[in-house]
Amino acid sequence: MNAKRKAFRWTASIALAAAAIIYVVPILIIIMNSFKKRAYISLEPFELPSEKAFAGLENYAVGIEDYDFLEGVGWTVLITVGSVLAILIFCSMFGWFITRVKNRVTKLLYTLCVFSMVVPFQMVMFTLSKTADILKLNTPWGIIIVYLGFGAGLAVFMFCGFVKSIPVEIEEAAMIDGCSPLGIFFKVVLPMLKPTYISVGILQTMWIWNDFLLPYLVLDQRRFQTISMTIQMMKGSYGRVDMGAIMACLVMAVIPVVVFYLSCQKYIIKGVAAGAVKG
Fold first, then answer.
1. Which tens digit of pLDDT belongs to each residue from 161-210?
2. CA distance 55 to 49
3. Nearest to residue 256, comparing CAs of 63, 77, 29?
4. What is the per-residue burial (b if ≥16 Cβ within 10 Å, else e) of 73-90?
5. Using CA atoms, how far apart are residues 44 and 64, in angstroms rounded to an integer?
6. CATH class label, 65-274
7. What are the domain boundaries of the chain?
8. Rg for the chain, CA atoms, rounded
9. What is the predicted pLDDT for the residue at 279?
10. Of 248, 235, 199, nearest to 65 (Cα)?
């Protein structure tokens, strides 16, 4: 048995290492090409930048100055922070309410939230775009409401799972001490929801920061562009593409979310496990 276990562990380690390499290599190629001159990116895409091909930080400067990359970063930060805060606050309160108040309406609401996770985005994207235009949600502030709707399914599911693990006697004791429902939530329940808050926040941040299709369909592109939209718009007329600037902007776009994920990844498993209990 020990020999079989060791063989299995070695096989699993090799398979995971190979998978890690497959994921890491494209990122390394992008970083490597971001320091090359435009012509050499197509001629030598898989080679380290030579003395002739090395462009230094020129591609990064072009991306920032010529394509308004920093403006895209600003809109992306606003949308991401606003959307994640809205999802965390409203979905945690909603999850707590429908878990504690058990009737047909709350059961239906919970079912709808879970069902929303399996509905393909492509089924609603054209209707969503038209509705957003009619309701004037085609701004960075309006799209926060749209993200709240799309992110509510997973968030409510995780918050409900965690709330079921909290003894209701704690809340009853706070009620006896004179706490209002809002006081019970913010003073008693919310501090205990920290693991799920962090996990939901990480998952939603990575999704919203990297999202391209939803802002592309909803936002007024003449006034507002996220990072993903800015990079997409770098493709000029007649098929002209500044690959150097695109590579540099991709690196700058990936770094913040990678750093954020690596600094918070230990909380993901804790939050997912805490939100997976059965009531």
1. 888 888 888 888 888 888 888 888 888 888 888 888 988 998 899 899 98
2. 8
3. 77
4. bebbebbbebbbebbbee
5. 24
6. mainly alpha
7. 2-60, 65-274
8. 23
9. 44
10. 248
d(CA 212, CA 218): 10
In contact, 139 and 220? CB cutoff 8 Å? yes
Do residues 113 and 151 touch, judged by C-beta distance below 8 A?
Answer: no
Tokens 């809340």 map to which residue? 171
Q: How confident is the model at residue 278 (pLDDT cuts 50, 70, 90)?
A: very low
The string of pLDDT tens digits covering residues 115-150 is 888 888 888 888 888 888 888 888 899 999 999 988
| Contact by Cβ (8 Å): 155, 196 | no
Q: Is pLDDT above 60 for 35?
A: yes
Which amino acid type is present at position 37? K
Residue 266: pLDDT over 90: no
Q: How many CB atoms lie within 10 A of CB 164?
A: 15
Of the candidates 69, 26, 36, 86, the residue with the CA atom closest to the CA atom of residue 228: 69
Q: What pLDDT digit, counting tens, does each position of 246-263 carry?
A: 888 888 988 888 888 888
**Separation in Å, CA 188 to CA 93, 185, 224, 274:** 12, 6, 40, 17
Do 159 and 200 contact (CB within 8 A), yes or no?
yes
CA distance 222 to 245: 21
Contact 183, 166 (CB under 8 A): no
- Measure Cα distances from 69 to 76, 216, 244 in Å: 11, 16, 14
Backbone angles phi, psi at 172, to 5 degrees: -65, -35
| Distance in angstroms (rounded) separating the CA atoms of residues 155 and 199 | 9
